[in-house]
Amino acid sequence: MPPESVEKRLSDLIAAAERGNAAEQLELGLSYLEGAGGLERDPASAFKWLKKAADSGNPRAAFNLSYLHSAGLGTERDGALALSLLRKAAEAGYAPAEQNLGTLHILGELAPEDPSQALYWYLRAADHGDLVALYQLGLLYLEGGRGVPRDPALARDYFRKASQGGLLDARYNLALMLASGNGVGRDPEEAFRLFQENADRGDPRSAFNLANMLAAGEGTERDPALSFHWCRKAAEAGIAEAEGSLGLKLLLGEGTEADKPEAERWLRKAARKGNVRAMFTLAVMLQLGDGVPEDPEEALAFFEAAAEAGDPESMYRAALLRLERTGGEGPEALKIHAHLEKAAKAGHDRAMRALADLLWDGRLAGRDRAEAERLYRESARLGNLDAKFSLALALLCAPSSGPDTAARDEARELLSALSQAGYPGAEEKLKELGFRFF
What we know:
Helices cover 73% and strands 0% of the residues. By secondary structure, it is mostly helical. Among the domains are: 1-92, Serine Threonine Protein Phosphatase 5, Tetratricopeptide repeat; 348-438, Serine Threonine Protein Phosphatase 5, Tetratricopeptide repeat (Alpha Horseshoe). The mean pLDDT is 93.
């Protein structure tokens, strides 16, 4: 619009507002609030004109005036007055006010925390076509609790309505539900389509999920190259999990040429954001010198960081690396024992077996052969062949009179199974036992 046209439009708007026309007062107030229509942003002038329009009964003006009072823009901050104006706009049927009032009742900010009131206002706003309210209703019924029954099917329907209106977050949550079958029937093809729609509109979360589905051939044909493309889009948008996944793809050459220096760069970005998988991968690279200079000290630091975040495999690796570097002497013994014990409690079979070995030999925390045997058994139950072999040897380790019959028979059964599985040393041990005991 030519400058003279803008000036004429603004002059007419101000004149109409000064004559008391509420619609023009609202428009003028919003123009001052947003710095639009040829005006500089001026919260004080926005407050003046929005108040005039609100006093004339305009609910949209009351809604925006509520915002100014809550934020202290152009006027004193006044939470009680902000809530009063918001409620006035909501009671007049202004959908954004109804939706905002529902959210305040969820958060307990300005208004009392009251899920039933939140539900009431969200339903009103949804009836008036508010997409955010439809989305919030989907979240309420998906999560349940606080007086709202969990109803995934209803959540899906609300997400779908908001998605059809173009709300990215609703489409994303709907896709997640359909991909996982969270309370509803799985539909990976529909999930893929929804993620694709969002990714095409620039949503990095959807781009990452799209990459994972393309990598797995879930809901679509497997396409490693296209998976790499969408993973990079998500990583470049700063999604930590995508950064870590991109690093792995570059490391392994999945969907692209392998590029270990570039892999390291992305893995470090993800690790700095706390991505456990990236920390672990970097630690392995540094421990082995795979694409990076070998650095056991930094490898241990990454294993420790991932262990601190709760990763049992990193706890196990950190313990073994400490044991290898120090022999488990002094204060290191406590750290090694703590890592292995925590990983074992998390169900890590190799940590159970490693801790059992140390307890059997009396290293680190003293000898405890009963606990060692228990750990061997638990690790063996989880399928660890090394633990089965160690358990067999432990059962045969008896006083000078030799192992009792039950222990000897159990050891023979374990060794026979291991021999049939081709486990190194099992057949030789059976022959030795046959000579000595049978």
